[in-house]
Amino acid sequence: MDRRRTAPLEAVMDLLLDAVCVVDEFGHFVFVSAAFERIFGYSCDEVIGRRMIDLVLPEDRERTLRAAAEIMSGDPKLSFENRYVRKDGAIVHILWSARWSESERLRVAIAHDITARRRAGDMQAAMYAMSEAAHVATDLFDLLARAHRIVADLLPAERMMVGVRNEIDGALNIAYAADAHGDPVDGLPSRCIDFCADVVARGETRLMAGERGETWLGAPLVSADGCLGALALKRAPGAPVFTERDRELLNFVATQIATALERMQLQTRLRRMAQYDGLTGLPNRALLHDRIETGIAAARRAKGRLALLYLDLDRFKEVNDTLGHAAGDVLLHDVAQRLRHCVRDADTVARIGGDEFVVLLADVRRMEDAETVADKIRDVLARPVTMDGHELTVGASIGIARWPENGDSAKDLLLIADAAMYAAKRRR
Fold first, then answer.
1. Are 206 and 198 in contact (CB under 8 A)?
2. Domain limits at 310?
3. What is the pLDDT of residues 190-218, one digit of tens each?
């Protein structure tokens, strides 16, 4: 190529805002215009002779090589998009127009930097995606797994973790930890948890370099009610380091995740208020009905049995009258805890109002099993309770209904057990 003839052309190309790149048939740079350094961070002298593919983000290399092969076979590309790693470690989105010169055995391309445009579009898409995830996620893990897929498109990382503060005591628990493929990661090092805790404590986005060359980027999950937790990303040694732009992007995503998380926690609280007794934490009447119907359906499929125990506390009114309702509430809470310890995890203890409780025994093997549990409950509740210097003793009148002998619905079983309970109370 005649240098005297091409020099004016090169000067013109150096005036272009887009970068002109020429790559030989083996994939090595043979020419780049001045704009290449502005876009990619490398000067002409630093890239001439280097393989083009080495600058491409690893996740995009395979499809970039396929596109290059298609171009060299005579198929020009007018709008091929991929990502490159700048010299400073930042990731840039490039829109290419490229064609192959068979006579010169060269691939000629124009690189247009669309990073800002892509970031704006990606941020808007992330906002919509997180809003959708908040509505369709079935639980916290599902929500965070969906969030991971959204974050991975914006900020590729070897690992993502999310720490969420317990609503009761504020303790930070790792609710989600997965690798780049979304596979769960177990046995996290203490420094990972410490990093999330530090982000929560500071309440600001943090960048940290690890001892082994890895880099961490964390952002707090801030809502109107305070900091809900932290989102953290880890990149392996040798991977592009996180930049200031990445900090801004992660902070934006963390805000969307926090909003979705806050909405899910609110829905959980409302659902719990609708299904559980506020004083004892036991299922209420509505949830008990659902549990009974579900238990009946399961027993019918398995040709099994179940039983219902209806309890009314004896002498509870005396506690309220002599020590007050606050003492009565404490006693009810104590009774709930005792009842829980009398049954299996598969069984249900519910408070259906006042001093009335129901125990649903799933998978009852023998007719007498329900009586055995009833006797255990009577013994446990007969043990005295010390309250404000007073030793209180309450008992329980218990009625039993069995499926399928006594009915085929929650309503039928509750009526039979209730009637049996009143009959037992009259005999006392």
1. yes
2. 285-427
3. 777 888 888 998 988 988 887 778 889 99
